[in-house]
Design the sequence.
């Protein structure tokens, strides 16, 4: 596994987690809403904003046969075509959105869903590409994206081990040199108990890739926990208002929650650190308050030390408590007073 770079930002080992704010369908048909989400993502500290680039007729067909009907869930009662027609990011918005990202100073890229989407994003200079979970089995699309030579991120929701390996092989065969694979559960929302985050380090070892998390839970706990297990990338849907009525609003983070994610994921990464048994800088001032052996009743010269006149107490200026049994029964070489630290040169 090696680190990758997207738009100048290194991702991977010894790097803080890369936070992707997924705009998805949360523009709700209003480009100004999309601009506002981008502004909030930048203010929150996200590293990138991600779009989805498709049209209804590039992702499905206008058909109301049973298999094209959505049964239950957030989008129940709609056909696939109707859902994607209402949720799609108009292609004419892409350049203004890319320009807005440049103005804000935030990286922007997208999930393409067919070859024409890749071509559009190449014209706009996309610095990376994301393959969505539902497209992880589209080997020709993965290879087409890989030919761009740009870094790739592949989500693995619903994919088994062999399908994940096939997607990774396709990326490398197509020419991809920088790859991150995201553990994902394609439920909307997904319960935390379905995530099995232990899969993240296994995925890294099994496939030899950088790993991350595409998180569809409705809070930040799962995402923050993933950092400790090696997630280099965290992707979360973001919105202005979870009750906004858009296709993805209900399982997306609001601005304050995104700020918390960016802050807490970095804190988790900093806390992870490395194996270290040395005394930490923040501890050094408190060493003197550890326990040690003290005289707790006056002891005259020649008198024996006992459990009544010597105890292990705080602070830590006397002999270490491990010598307690050895000093009992020894004679004092000098008069010692209550509150004196016990020292080796004061006892027989």
Sequence:
């Amino acid at each position: 596994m090696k680190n990758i770079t997207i738009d100048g930002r290194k991702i991977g080992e010894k790097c803080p987690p890369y936070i992707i704010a997924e705009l998805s369908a949360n523009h709700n048909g209003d480009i100004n809403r999309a601009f506002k989400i981008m502004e909030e993502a930048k203010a929150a500290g996200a590293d990138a904003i991600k779009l989805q680039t498709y049209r209804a007729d590039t992702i499905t067909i206008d058909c109301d046969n049973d298999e094209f009907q959505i049964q239950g869930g957030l989008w129940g009662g709609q056909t696939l075509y109707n859902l994607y027609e209402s949720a799609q990011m108009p292609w004419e918005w892409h350049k203004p959105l890319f320009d807005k990202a440049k103005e804000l100073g935030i990286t922007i890229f997208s999930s393409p869903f067919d070859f024409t989407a890749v071509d559009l994003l190449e014209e706009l200079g996309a610095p990376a590409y994301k393959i969505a979970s539902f497209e992880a089995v589209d080997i020709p699309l993965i290879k087409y994206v890989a030919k761009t030579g740009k870094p790739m991120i592949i989500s693995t929701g619903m994919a088994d081990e062999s399908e994940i390996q096939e997607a990774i092989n396709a990326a490398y065969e197509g020419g991809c040199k920088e790859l991150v694979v995201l553990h994902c559960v394609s439920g909307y929302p997904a319960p935390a108990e379905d995530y099995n985050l232990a899969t993240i380090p296994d995925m890294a070892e099994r496939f030899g890739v950088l790993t991350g998390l595409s998180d569809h839970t409705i809070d930040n706990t799962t995402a923050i926990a993933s950092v400790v297990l090696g997630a280099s990338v965290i992707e979360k849907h973001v919105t202005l208002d979870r009750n906004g009525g858009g296709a993805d609003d209900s399982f997306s983070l609001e601005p304050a929650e995104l700020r918390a994610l960016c802050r807490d994921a970095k804190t988790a990464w900093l806390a992870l650190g490395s194996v270290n048994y040395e005394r930490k800088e923040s501890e050094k001032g408190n060493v003197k308050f550890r326990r040690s052996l003290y005289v707790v009743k006056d002891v005259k010269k020649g008198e024996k030390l006992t459990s009544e006149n010597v105890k292990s107490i705080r602070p830590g200026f006397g002999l270490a408590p491990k010598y307690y049994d050895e000093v009992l029964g020894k004679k004092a070489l000098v008069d010692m007073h209550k509150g004196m630290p016990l020292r080796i040169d004061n006892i027989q």
Q: What stands out?
A: The longest strand covers residues 48-53. The chain has two domains: 13-54+89-272, 281-346. The radius of gyration is 30 Å. The mean pLDDT is 96.
